[in-house]
Design a protein that fits this description.
495 residues, binds adenosine-5'-diphosphate, 17 helices, 24% strand
Amino acid sequence: MEKYIMALDQGTTSSRTIIYDKAGNIIASSQKQFTQIYPYEGWVEHDPLEIWDTQLLTAQEALSKAGLTYENIAGIGITNQRETTIVWDKATGTPVYNAIVWQCRRTADYAERLKPCEEMIRRKTGLVADPYFSATKLAWILDNVEGARDRARRGELLFGTIETWLIWKMTGGKVHVSDYSNACRTMLFNIITLKWDRDLCDLLEIPMQMLPKPVECSAHYGDTTKELFGGPIPITGAAGDQQAALFGEACFNEGDVKSTYGTGNFLLLNTGDKPVMSENNLLTTIAWGLNGDVKYALEGSVFISGAAIHWMREQLGFIKEASESVALANEVEDTGGVYVVPAFVGLGAPYWDPNARGAIFGMTRGTSKAHIARATLEALAYQSEDLLSAMRADTGQELSTLKVDGGAANNELVMQMQADISNAEIIRYSSVESTSLGAAYLAGLAVGYYDNLEDISASKEIAKTFSPGIDDTARKEMIEGWHRAVQATIAFRVL
Ligand code: ADP
């Protein structure tokens, strides 16, 4: 019987399921959007039951579209929006509050109060004290839902990030686990000892009995209950979206680095067996746990990347489709000295300024739409370069190859700009769907669908490479101009 892997991709705006064959071809897929709940300015929630319903529906639909049954699926792999926090009743499965989404800023004051402990937080978790991570969101639920902390102390409530919740639901409440790559984003997990950290839990009064069991990213966690797919399917892989993309791009070795160009831009560098503590404002994170071994990564994130192309389309009306940005930008040979800094929601790594706002510099009487479009595309590459150069500084490595994925990686001009600006070879695989593919690989390894990492690497096909084509002087000048534009943007920050 032909066997396949089912990847569940539980993202911030939609739940998707993709069924892959061994070569990484998509056999069938299904996607459902779900409700974004914005109770107040800066607050973002999801309904955990809607997440579960949409995820299950897409899985059932993908299976039926492919004309397969549960017996054809060798294993299920999960990848998910990270940090999003759910607390539910262990006996009934009812969430005590909506999921608090990673983007939600309601716990900014909690994070502020943790600032004096930032050194300890960094040492233990590799993270900075920020409301982005799960810990303060969990504390908020325990503080604000009546009786929640007492019930948690009595062992009646469970905490989970999205993969934990989905595995618990799929196994009918039997299995309560969190994989290392998700656990390490909670700010409660010690990335060296691979255990929940008592000091951090005490700091936020989080009862440890509500935390899931930490597990590797590729292992048999449990089976789906029979009624979901007509029979049991083993659940055998899980990883947070960015780490899954790193795995999906086959960045298995120390020094391998990938850039995902989606709404935002995420760079992850595999640093091998040792966590590297950044001196350049990057995060240290677990890449994955596999076969008794843990790999670490340096991570940098930029908030607005592909979203800047979206802005040109929706707000400026320059283009009708994202892909038209290439033709528009190619109407001119260069930006004519224009720089666009798309700091629409502040600046992420390595600048970390929430109060910065977007800006356009260097315009003259001759500046046209095409110059601005070209400068906007270049900004995607400059932002990635800032992260890459922080990684170079932290590790002393040259990092002359960058693997790319995500929607905007389809943009050939941006990819060429990236090669030029970063002086790096850009590698694009035939599939830019590396997030779900990474989850499929992890699930497949646990059941022998893939024998080893070499087996996976061999199945990957490079679609295109982009090589640097400008000289060092031009590169230096361009980057220097970008840095001046960023500094000027920061100087104008909102008060
Ligand atoms: P996400 O997973 O964050 O929703 P995707 O990986 O689907 O993002 O990428 C979508 C983003 O990529 C959008 O912001 C879109 O504007 C941008 N994008 C898609 N195609 C192109 C393209 N050809 N050129 C530039 N940007 C693009």
